[in-house]
Specification:
five-stranded parallel sheet; 7 helices; Rossmann fold; two-stranded antiparallel ribbon; alpha/beta; 20% strand
Length: 159
Amino acid sequence: MATLIVYMTSHGCAEKAAEMIRDLMPDDVTLVNLEKFETPPSEKFETVIIGGSIRIGNIQRKIRKFCEKNLDILLTKRTGLFICCMFEGDTALEQFNSAFPEVLRKNSIATGLFGGELEFEKMNAFERMIIKQVANISEDVSKFNEKAVREFAWKISDA
């Protein structure tokens, strides 16, 4: 069963999640970073996984556009959706819900909230300044949830 993983990442966390999902899947997986590559036609894949990172409360615009442009096709596929964000609980769920269209969320066989990471060496000076002022954080922080990624991949594989 052919699987497409479409993702975008700001500083690497969503890429880390996408690669981990790919490595956990038993079948043929094509990994596409929308920032670097054009997306292969979704029609040839039975499963499509879409994910990105939340930055300033929003998922990347190209992920949102991919979902809008391909919604009719995606609704005929086995889909999985995930985000990486630093928030947990209700706030993370709100960000997930705002990242993807409701009809796509309801149609998905797996959803994932994988936590996030702040890696200062991957940020520009402005981002570091904002994180320090708004969140009062001045060193690397990881809330990346590998267990949630494994459970997501298992659910996609088993469905």
